[in-house]
Amino acid sequence: MAQEYKLILKYADEPGYTPDIECYLRHGGYEGLKKALAIQPKDLPDGKKLSGPEQIREDVKVSGLRGRGGAGFSCGLKWSFVDRRSGKPIYLICNADESEPGTFKDRQIMHKDPHQLIEGMIISCFANDVKLAYIYIRGEMPEGAKILNQALKEARAKNFLGKNILGTGYDLEMHVHRGAGAYICGEETGLIESLEGKRPYPRIKPPYFPAVLGLWMCPTIVNNVETLCNVKHIVEMGGAAFAKLGTPNNTGTRIVSLSGQVKRPGYYEIEVGKATLGELINDPKFGGGLRDGRKLKAIIPGGSSSKVLKAGEKFKLKKKDAEGKEIVVETDMLDLPYDFDSLAQAGTMSGSSAIIVMDDSVDIVEALANLSEFYAHESCGQCTPCREGALWMNKTLHRLTHGQGRKQDADYLVKTADNIPGGRTICAFGEACSWPVQSFVAKFKDEFVAKGAADEERRAQEAAGTAEPKQLAQAHH
Amino acid sequence: MSTAATTETKPAAPVIEKIKVKVDGREIEVPRLTADWSGKLTPTTMIQACEQAKTDVPHYCWHPQLPVAGNCRMCLVEFGTPAMGPDRKPVINPDGTAKIAKSPRPAIACATPISPGMEIYTTTPAVKQMREGVLESLLINHPLDCPICDQAGECKLQEYSVDYGQSASRFVEAKVHKPKAVDLGPRIMLDAERCVLCTRCIRFTRDIAGDDKLGIINRGSYNTIATFPGTPFDNNYTLNTVDICPVGALTSKDFRFQMRVWFLKETKSLCTSCGTGCSTLLGSREEKLFRYTPRDNAAVNGPWMCDAGRLNYKWIQRADRLKEVQVFGKKNTWAGALYQISDRLKRAQAGSVAIIASARQTNEELWLISKLKAKLSAVSDSVARFGEADKLLVSADKNPNTNGARLTGICFTEIGSNLPQIAAGIQSGKIRTLIVFGEDVTKHGLSADLLAKLETLIVSDILPNETVKLAHYVLPGAAHAEKRGSFTNTKGRVQKFMKAVEAPGDARAEWEFLHELVHNVTGQNGFVTIEGLFNEMAKDVPAFNGLNWAALGDTGVTVQI
Predict the structure, then answer these.
(1) Architecture of domain B325-558
(2) What is the 8-class DSSP label of residue B316?
């Protein structure tokens, strides 16, 4: 049976655990950093030497760590793209702009165990020869910013930060920067623009890959809070040991944010792929099942941008059998292992590992209207398809949920959504705003059509005088 | 002095490696690097390669002279690159060609560098669909007010809608409403509903004009171009944003609602407001000028011009233009006046005539004057006009043709240095005849009292002034928009300009009556056309040797000054 596995949140929820440095030190804090700083150059067979930082970078590769922010990109690979020959400073930014609807994992770390993040960051900075790092924290998290600033102060006082860290000659400074309340600042190049004091318009790639032309046009690493915390554990336990956690290519643990109509919403840390969606929702150790008398209708498996899964959907998953031969297994959506690759095979993603559960009391059209309002509000408006499409979809859904629907609105919506994703926009927001629409309508089309048809019928009755005109809410402008 | 004229303005570009790419199946060779907006060599992009292949890639935000923004998404294309095997070697098709791996995602042609063997596809169904999608997005909240929009006729939204769009709209929602008739600054109006948010104006004023005054406010579909609160968009280059605005969002307060652009006749001309000599297009209809716009000339002004120069045309149509030939205060004819003037000049004692020409006159006119000067042993000069320069285009020399005046020998290194000598000559009675072209000399050290001492004062000008009032002979001249000719700018660029409108009344291009006068006085002949005149001048003036009118082309030739 699936179990919680607490690596990042090992101590955070223990009674009496506090976010101050003394408590962190009592729990073995900053030992990973000391270990990292003490790594001696290693001789290679070819006579070359591998420096301590290089060994850490290698170990992160070995660990198989994948980004916890949403895209699931290999952290070691990301670090390997950094332009180390430019002569320009290298920056590291912690992306703490956690704003994907349904996601509330990074907040737990920052609020309860800020030093773990800071230690992970210092090690990552050391590994990448970074002298200045930023924590870009979501504007709506003032408490987190306060806690982090206090923690940075404490870390400086103990010389974990600042000049000549622990007598090793390594200098590092770190600052907290608060966002101003825009979802797009979670997009790494939008974040960089915002950090530079500009409007957070994501940059075009090419040429502005952060690893080469990032903050102030210098090589820059942007990693998620949870990803950076993992680096501390990789150094402490070794990359190979870390890679044994979870499943192949889906290593380590993930903190899952579980919300929606389950009995025990909350956050649960699991080994990646060692629990299924069904277990996370129904197991008493996790979600504890739906409310009594309710049936599952749909799951958004990886934050609001991920494509919805419909109850009862079956997927053909490629797996390896005992002999290592590739086989195809028909898998119910509830039996999908909660990892990066299985959900990708199911046509969706584990994203920011935020599961939103919807039971049969949910009006799926209303649910999508709610989501689309978020995206229409958050599209930065830089590039055409997303700027116009996000609001258009929202207006259509608003109409459809306010008595002005049409039968053809389902197709009309999808046609609008189809204009946005697939590399037509500068950043992935285009996908984020259109995937929910495409997947909701594809999987629940009958509900969209029925709503439009009902509206048409009612309007016909009103026109014929056989029904009282319905008072409609103010339409969007 | 007589170095061969050249069209080169910069040292030869370094040799750049060429690479082969295919655009819609056609192989072309393009340089691996191309100069970007700032002149820096950067990897050649797909849109630049397509341009060389003469393949149109529609675009709104991309502009060759601005930093790349990549936001409009109109230039999305599909592409493929040579497929690589596991051995990192190109995979070869059975027919020996390189196998191409088509990218699953499109790319914006404006920002994506080309690579050897790349294939760019601009006509696939997917590209067509993407263009339709972008146009649909741009149009859903657009007011569709072409009938009252100044941009109609030169609007990229109109043009691309016809070329790449769909004829019907499926949009049934309420449109977004945004501010209209926004007073952005003294010369610019914004209609935010027409704006496609390409940010060309923002990039222009930030990166070219150096006045970071425009930005975007609000978010998403409500995005709106705006100035910082309380600060008007007011620098000397604001009207360029109207030119580069691909739609009718930014309009010129001067030109808006004045004339439909398709009625305008466009005449290639030059700006006369300073020594830079920006290439311009004069928009006129039925002998009336409506607007000046810059004409792209990499050797002079690029695609830009300053607001001051652009709006400096109203005087041409002033009601008090000199329209009559006058002899001693009475209306006369050109024949009558020129007969009398010729007679007086022929009888004038050598050294008794002074000529003050204008550095606003053309090379050809100044050269004709130099012929008179030689024959009459006259002392000559013109009037200096200096002001402030800026970093972009405006020159400190406010005369358009100071170099022309120098090269034709009308004035010398220090323009205006002969004026005191002329004043002294009049005072002493040595100079008894003064010919003035286009200058109010009473403002330049030759007072009305002094001019009253002259036996003969011949004045050719365009607008009335104190000198004209004192003239014995008034010869009404033509503005540059009313004639042809050439100027030599501060850097030695010789450019020609064409005639847009007729001069009012009896006013005549100076070169026309000058050539008559030169013939009468000196006996020289043969310059009845501007082409012939220019070519004669080119033979005679060392700096212009080797030039001819036709070879000046649209953008001119640089000579050594």
Answers:
(1) 3-Layer(aba) Sandwich (3.40)
(2) G
Write the pLDDT tens digit of every residue in B309-326: 999 999 999 999 999 999
How far is it, in rounded angstroms, from Cα B68 to Cα A339?
A: 39
Interface of A with B in 319-378 (CB under 8 A): 376-378
The answer to whether B468 and B499 are in contact (CB under 8 A) is: no
Chain A nearest-CA residue for B71: A383
Calculate how close chain A gets to B543, using CA atoms only, in Å. Answer: 47
Distance CA B26, CA B118 (A): 11
State the Cα–Cα distance between residues B397 and B394, nearest whole angstrom.
Answer: 8
Same domain, A139 and A267: no
CB atoms inside a 10 Å sphere around CB B52: 15
Domain match, A349 and A277 both: yes
| CA distance linking residue B498 with residue B279, whole number of Å | 11
CA dist., res. A59 & res. A313, Å (int)? 39
Q: Smallest Cα–Cα separation from A370: which of A298, A437, A456, A442?
A: A437
Whole-model pTM? 0.94
Q: What distance in Å separates the CA atoms of residue B29 and residue B220, rounded to the nearest whole number? A: 41
Tokens of A14: 């223990």
Residue with the two structure tokens 């997009």: A187
Minimum-distance CB partner of A381 among B74, B173, B219: B219
Q: Which tens digits make up the pLDDT trace of B225-250?
A: 999 888 999 999 999 999 999 999 99
CA distance A396 to chain B (A): 7
DSSP per-residue codes, B129-146:
HHHHHHHHHHHHTS---G
Q: What is the CATH number of the domain that holds A152?
A: 3.40.50.11540
| Domain end point (choices A244, A274, A290) | A244
Task: Select from B74, B105, B177 the Cβ nearest to the Cβ of A422.
Answer: B105
Q: Which domain holds residue A289?
A: 258-359
Cross-chain residue pair A422–B141, CB shorter than 8 Å: no
Q: Which two tokens stand for residue B100?
A: 């191409």
Sign of CA dihedral A374, A376, A381, A386: positive
Looking at the structure, tell me whether residues A337 and A404 fall in a common domain. no
Distance of alpha carbon A357 from alpha carbon A254, whole angstroms: 18
**Residue A360: its pLDDT value, please?**
97
Task: Please give the sequence-ordered ranges of beta strands (E in DSSP) within A366-442, or none if there are none.
Answer: none
**Domain boundary pick from A359, A383, A408:** A359
Q: Which of A 383-412 lie inside 8 A of B, CB atoms?
A: 383-385, 387-392, 395-396, 399, 406, 412
* CB-CB under 8 Å, A204 with B68: yes
